[in-house]
Amino acid sequence: MMPTGVASATPCLALDIGGTKAEAAVVTRDGVVVRRERLDVKAAGAQLFDGISEMLEHVRADYQLSSLGVACAGPMLAGGVSVSPLNIPVWRDFALREQLGLATGLSVYIDGDVRALALAEGAFGAARNVTSYASMVVSTGVGGAIVMDGRMVNGDSGNAGHLGHLNVVPEGRRCSCGASGCLEAEASGWAIEEMTGQSPEHADEVTRRRTATLVGRAVGTLASVLDFNHCYVAGSVALGFGDDFFTTATAAARQMATLDYSRTLEVRRSGLGSDGSILGAACVAWRSDS
Q1: Are 58 and 15 in contact, with CB atoms under 8 Å apart?
Q2: How far is CA 55 from CA 35, 47, 68, 112, 169, in A?
Q3: Going from the N-terminus, what domains does the chain have, and what CATH number goes with each?
Q4: Above 50 in pLDDT, residue 160?
Q5: Residue 3 above 80 pLDDT?
Q6: pTM
Q7: pLDDT tens-digit profile of 254-277?
Q8: Closest by alpha carbon to 180, among 189, 212, 191?
Q9: What sign does the dihedral 179-185-191-192 (CA atoms) show?
Q10: Which end of the chain has fewer CB atoms surrounding its CB within 10 Å, N or C?
């Protein structure tokens, strides 16, 4: 799925805001990142927006740019009018689009971080020839997005696709969203650390297999409802757990998705590599500015 406008898009400024880091870059229309900077979100604390503004100014120096594409953790109001990322408690109903417009003087386009990643997956990654698929990030949190028939599924408020809030353990652990038993509360990086007392990179085999199984169950349940056969997963937890994660997740997904149209369902690693998030932010600008 090639996002509208990508083929003829001009270079843009891109910003990815996650629960752990924020990254800014200039991205060319063929997906090349030519300049970038990062900052630690937690270390920035209440000064996060000021830090982001400074970073954007450093990155855009010497470039004539007209648009800024932003991928931000959610939830948010449509178009990023306000954002309330669950893992950034200093931002609640924060007027991100307006503030970035004032700080940069650019046209600002905002979408959810994993939704942006799904756009990049279709333009530059493993989904280039796939019309219906899910994208996920299993990292500090768990996010998701859905593309059906070549179009992003938006929903009433633009927040469709939050796979991290599918219930996978009834009456399970309390989630940051307020519900219990969500995939994020059971399989995210922060959940693994709370359950085991260790960072995910040190998780034992039982924890790794349980995490992959829960992800697979969520994907399989959704695939049966929406009729897709590919889910592309990025994020430090999933990728850090290696090939076994994807083998286990695919097997668990197929146990849930048993209808004929889901027989080839696969949970695969993202084809975007480390630049996926920032490419996704650029795709948000290109899609909207076309």
Answers
A1: no
A2: 11, 12, 13, 20, 40
A3: 12-115+275-288 (3.30.420.40), 126-271 (3.30.420.40)
A4: yes
A5: no
A6: 0.88
A7: 999 999 999 899 999 999 988 999
A8: 191
A9: positive
A10: C
